[in-house]
Specification:
227 residues, alpha+beta, 6 strands, 16% strand
């Protein structure tokens, strides 16, 4: 993410994608190319935290701080999906017989090693999501208890209507946010599990078939082994 974009939010409150205020963005860490490496967020009470760049989400002209579970799920999903597509491409190239078998095999081995690590991360991401779901279940129950106790106090005449409405509105708002996050958690869990069960499908006509069906001058095929 470009530092010039993030700089406009210095001194302002930053939120997560569900609307919770995380804190105030007070500083940016960037490299010499102007790429953000992280930001410093003041949480209040003299507490500061460094948020790495991969947790920052740009949405139009806004910026959000993703929860750790979301940043991890998003990153591993994109990388694993790309790795799976690369494996399928290399398998098609092997079957076609029109490419250097040793180079293709070397590339496939490297991608398979990357996939193995990504699958470990996927397992970790799923665990993070399930743990967060459990946390939200506990928090939701706590909010419901607080609302019942608040209503009891109101109906018993212990607090006035204005204070009751303010407090009840705050509890309900936080409960709505928790429900939105729970929905997102379940959607991401489903996406990760579906990717694990159903790898990306091959196209009806593979790019390799399209390439080899066209008569061209012979030229060496170069496979980029860098990530």
């Amino acid at each position: 993410m470009d530092a010039s974009f993030v700089e406009r939010f210095v001194g302002e409150e930053v939120k997560d994608p569900f609307g919770r205020v995380i804190g105030t963005l007070v500083s940016i860490y960037s490299d010499v190319d102007g790429n953000v490496e992280g930001v410093e967020v003041a949480l209040g009470g003299n507490t500061f935290t460094t948020v790495p760049a991969y947790r920052l989400l740009k949405d139009g002209d806004k910026i959000y701080v993703m929860p750790e579970w979301m940043a991890e799920a998003r990153d591993v999903y994109m990388k694993l999906e790309r790795a799976m597509k690369r494996i399928k491409a290399l398998e098609m190239m092997t079957r076609s017989g029109d490419f250097n078998a040793d180079i293709v095999s070397q590339a496939k081995k490297k991608v398979e090693q990357q996939m193995s690590k990504l699958k470990e991360r996927l397992t970790t991401a799923r665990k993070m999501i399930k743990e967060r779901l459990n946390e939200l279940e506990d928090q939701t129950l706590q909010m419901e208890k607080a609302l019942v106790n608040l209503q009891m106090s109101y109906f018993a005449g212990e607090i006035d209507e204005r204070r009751y409405k303010q407090a009840a509105s705050s509890i309900r708002h936080q409960k709505d946010i928790a429900m939105e996050e729970k929905k997102a958690l379940k959607e991401w869990l489903d996406k990760l599990e579906r990717l694990e069960r159903e790898p990306p499908k091959e196209e009806e006509e593979s790019p390799v078939q399209s390439m080899t069906s066209v008569t061209t001058t012979t030229s060496p095929v170069v496979i980029d082994l860098s990530d």
